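Entry for the shared binder. Reason: the reviewer on the internal report wants the predicted structure included alongside the sequence.
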Amino acid sequence: MWPLLPASLPGLIVVIGLACVAMRFVVPVALRALIEPLREVVGVLAALLVLPEFWISTARRRDGGTPPYLAYVYGNGVGRLATLGHQGVGTALRSLARAATTVHPLVVGIIAAAWHVAVHVG
């Protein structure tokens, strides 16, 4: 290209441009798209945590008894944790998506340039 410019400069410009576009447009969309799948994961984990309580309660009822009080407390606690998990995942990912759009392109460019130089020097 030009004799005074390093050979990796065009690649560096492309990396910085792609990083800025990704941080501004791709990362927020990806984070918002992850909200519902991660909420589903929280629901599945809650169901798995309640499963032993369900087995104990079912066995007690089958034998003509009533489930222990602790089973109700445990199930209620898992339900509350699942609700907090649902809300927490949504709030955290929405906040991260909003924060990703506010990162200054200069910061993204410096980080991308440092990464590009580190990869090509090492």
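Summary line for the report: The chain has a mean pLDDT of 89.
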